[in-house]
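Open question from group meeting: does this chain pack into something compact, or does most of it stay loose? Before anyone orders reagents, we agreed to write out a predicted structure and look at it together. Recording both the input and the output here so the notebook holds the full record.
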Amino acid sequence: MVCAQTIRLTEETDKQALLEFKSQVSETSRVVLGSWNDSLPLCSWTGVKCGLKHRRVTGVDLGGLKLTGVVSPFVGNLSFLRSLNLADNFFRSAIPLEVGNLFRLQYLNMRNNFLGGMIPVVLSNCSSLSTLDLSSNHLEQGVPFEFGSLSKLVILSLGRNNLTGKFPASLGNLTSLQMLDFIYNQIEGEIPGSIARLKQMVFFRIALNKFNGVFPPPVYNLSSLIFLSITGNSFSGTLRPDFGSLLPNLQILYMGINNFTGTIPETLSNISALQQLDIPSNHLTGKIPLSFGKLQNLLQLGLNNNSLGNYSSGDLDFLGTLTNCSQLQYLNFGVNKLGGQLPVFIANLSTQLTELSLGGNLISGSIPHGIGNLVSLQTLDLGENLLTGKLPPSLGELSELRKVLLYSNGLSGEIPSSLGNISGLTYLYLLNNSFEGSIPSSLGSCSYLLDLNLGTNKLNGSIPHELMELPSLVVLNVSFNLLVGPLREDVGKLKFLLALDVSYNKLSGQIPRTLANCLSLEFLLLQGNSFVGPIPDIRGLTGLRFLDLSKNNLSGTIPEYMANFSKLQNLNLSVNNFEGAVPTEGVFRNTSAMSVIGNINLCGGIPSLQLEPCFVELPGRHSSVRKIIAICVSAGMAALLLLCLCVVYLCRYKQRMKSVRANNNENDRSFSPVKSFYEKISYDELYKTTGGFSSSYLIGSGNFGAVFKGFLGSKNKAVAIKVLNLCKRGAAKSFIAECEALGGIRHRNLVKLVTVCSSADFEGNDFRALVYEFMSNGNLDMWLHPDEIEETGNPSGTLTVVERLNIAIDVASALVYLHTYCHNPIAHCDIKPSNILLDKDLTAHVSDFGLAQLLLKFDRDTFHIQFSSAGVRGTIGYAAPEYGMGGHPSIMGDVYSFGILLLEIFTGKRPTNKLFVDGLTLHSFTKSALPKRQALDITDQSILRGAYAQHFNMVECLTLVFQVGVSCSEESPVNRISMAEAVSKLVSIRERFFGDEET
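Structure tokens returned:
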């Protein structure tokens, strides 16, 4: 009886510990933790495993369930626990010290969460641990020296954190260790010699840290190694000649982006199981070993960006031996010192080869017809060599090709029309060769073409109209050829065109006015042709940076609107027949940025141009008198009207200020959180640091006031000071709401409230100001719509796809925190681009909590909320539809706003765009494009400007992003996904298309 009672008591201990754990965790689906209740036996709970004898909990497996919350310290009461798996969730905060009580624990996996703080030293008390995986979190400081006592440890994975310090020598005591992973940290110094004792090690990855010294000598002793990655450190010196003999079991070897010198060890070819050998971006010299052909299992060989070879005829002999490697998928020897003729036997390389890169050498000869045998080839890079001869038509048989880079050679003959068969081709670089004949019209069938560069050849004929039908073309360069005829009107169809270069041909006719439709243009180079007529109206091309119309036969006047092209860095209008006045503003102020020489009929301009003054006809005397009288009468009437308005305003202002002061005094009495800030900063300090709130310190304005830049404290820390206009209705409540929302929360993606000022100005008027960390890159709205913003300091560049995706993930992570991790959930209620601030690293910070609502109760099934105050406007276009029907603030309203924000980030269109009429919305506009794979058609043109240099499937990536935005912005709240799910999907997209390859 006593024994039975003891068992019940200990079972009850485990049960209570798990219920405490559950109380601090939330689950989207409620499928797993829903079974954790009194109606079911403890050992029947989902994810819980019990021992057969004592029925104590021995295992908890909750991996990949998208759980949010903190890890309860009560988990330390599960004294019989042997396995704890919390991987791939959204747990935050620190790892509880009580985990160190689990002396029976053998398996601990908390990877891919949001855990922070330092790694608890007390984990070294878990003496039975065989697996410890804390990778992909936000852990800081060093790896505990005490971990050297975990003698049973087999797997230690701490990669993708923010760990610093040295590599603990004590880890050499872990003689059972088979896997050690420290990738993506900031650990520095040399690898200690004690590591040589880890004879069972098979996986050793310390890539992307700050290690230095020679290749770690103790690693040579780890003869069981299968995977070795030391990429992205500062290792130097030479590799031992017997490298391959010492590490005979390697399958993966990554040593790129270091400072290794000397030759490649021949003995690497003795590693018969080697699959991937990657040593790019070092200083290796000598020949590439012929013996690599013995590596029958080789899949990847990357030796680019070294100094291999000596520009001699035998440098490429190794390629002949590689034909024995039938599984090869990747070969990259670009930017070395390889010479000799391109061998015919490259056609005999593996049919599984997807990339062949030999660019940036001095290879001669011709491209063999047999290149068509490489049926899996996606990238062919032979640029910047000495190749001659014709381009084989068999190249068009490679249907998987995406990139053909053959620039800067001596290739000749006609461009094969068969290239038009490669429907997925995205980059075709044939510039700087000697190609003749016409441009194949078949290239118009390459509907995914982003960059077509045919410049500096001997091409003739006209520019095929089929090229103007390419929907995604970003760069079109046909300069320095012999092309004739007009520049076609349908060039205006190239909506995404960033650069158009047709310079130095024999083109004629007028410059097409449809160029005005190419709103993405930054480079427009038409010089050295025979264009005639006036410059067409292209005032909408405000993104132009380089405009060259020189050496043509253009006439007419220079348009005044060109002075408004604020981004224009170079303007060349020389050697034409322009006449009339030269503008004096904008780029025309700087003679080093513009040229108008060779136009004999021009006048005016800035003095340094030394042009004749322009003749201006003076009006008649009587006409002049009449104009003066009219001006005086108009000015007098305007002054009288202004005086009346001032009197009315002052009367109303005095009445309003009395009311505002009364309201603010009441707010001060009822809102205690502000009072804790009262003494931190005074009105006088803010007045001084902003030059008396001078307009020269003004950096923006919002719903309830203006924002100034200032510097506070002994370190002159830059801050943003939001001064509220208390005369505006709701400003005082906005002040209180923002303090309530930001007073007790901390997150890397929320703007940090430094302090507040609740005082009086020098005239005794009430004064309220909020002081934030200064964000040097302004707000997201400035980056998405730079041409619409009149404020100074507009961004000079555009955001790439991955930068936009990172910003979206930052915002979503902040909302997950507000909705889930705060003591009471907080609905922001005004998510929009102008409320997303960007720091120097373009990390996003959600700001402006003036409309935020503290939600006191939230039912996750019905989305019903009880809250502290009702009624919210938000911003038109971003506010959820239910708000317009009297609905209360909710986290699902934030989800809707985020969805609209996400769509705007990637389409570049505001939800209030004039396009959206007659029931069409940004949501429906995007949703209708997805089934038709028209993602590129709706994408912000500026995204494509830099995308052509990136290696990813843009259509698929953008489609997946748009699907997340559409799922968040469904009209009904019950149909929207949660913010946690949105974060998960966006992170998965980033990892899939931009995540690091195994290094």
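Observations to bring back to the group:
The two ends are 60 Å apart (CA to CA).
The chain has a mean pLDDT of 84.
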